[in-house]
Amino acid sequence: MKKKYYIGISLLLAFLIIIFDQISKWIIASSMKIGDSYEVIPHFLNITSHRNNGAAWGILSGKMGFFYIITLVILVVLVLFYIKEAKYNLFMQVAITLLFAGALGNFIDRVFNGEVVDFIDTNIFGYDFPIFNIADSSLTIGVIFVIIALLKDTTKKN
Fold first, then answer.
1. How far apart are CA 124 and CA 63, in angstroms?
2. Phi-psi region of 93 (alpha: psi -120 to 50; beta: other; left: phi over 0)
3. Which of 98, 106, 107, 145 is spaced 20 to 30 A from 156 at the CA atom?
4. With 70 as the cut, is the pLDDT of residue 117 above it?
5. Given a cut of 70, is residue 157 above it in pLDDT?
C-alpha cells in the first residue's frame, strides 16, 4: 500500500507560520526599543520587546554554536520522522510541521541576529510567564499535538 503524505498542507502551514513569525518579529524589532511594552488585555497580555540569546527562559544564554548544531539535528530528525512515521496520519504530520516551523523560525533569528526576538508577554493566573514569540507557540502546540497523536495511537493498539 502506498504511503499517504499531505506535503502540500505541511508546506503551506510551515510557510505561513515562518512568514507570520518573521514579519511579527521584524515589526517588533523595528518599531519598539528593547523593554518597551504595550498593554493589550489588562492584567493578561502585553506586547513587550525582548531579546533572548539562549533557549527557553534564557537557558544556555550565549551558546549560539550549540544552538546551531542542535537545531540542525532537530530539523533533520523531524523531517526523517515525518517521512518514516507520519504516513496516513494528517494530525501527526501537522504536529511535526508545527515543530519544524517553530524550530526554523527561531533558527533564522539566531543565524541572522544572534538572538531571538520575543514579544508575547502574558500573565496567567498571577504568573508572569516568560516572554515568547510565534515560533515558540508553534513549538508548544506541536509538542502537545505529538503527545495527543501518540496517546491516540497507543489507545488504538490496546
1. 30
2. alpha
3. 98
4. yes
5. no
Q: How many domains does the chain have?
A: 1
What is the pLDDT averaged over residues 62-88? 85
> In which domain, by residue range, is 70 found?
5-154
pLDDT at 82 over 90: no
Q: Structure pTM?
A: 0.87
**Distance between CA 137 and CA 109 in Å, rounded?**
15
Buried b (16+ CB within 10 A) or exposed e, 59-90: eeeeeeeebeeebeeeeeebeebbeeebeebe
By DSSP bridging, strand 127-128 and strand 37-41 are: unpaired
Rounded CA-CA distance 88/4 in Å is 5
Q: Which pLDDT score is estimated for 3? A: 65
The answer to whether 16 touches 100, Cβ cutoff 8 Å, is: no
Residues with catalytic function? 118, 136
- Residue with the three cell numbers 526599543: 33
> Who contacts 20 (Cβ-Cβ below 8 Å, separation ≥6)?
134
Question: C-alpha angle with apex 153: 151 to 158, nearest 5 degrees?
Answer: 95
> Cα 136 vs. chain centroid, distance in angstroms?
4
Burial-class residue 16 by CB neighbours within 10 Å (0-12, 13-18, 19+): exposed
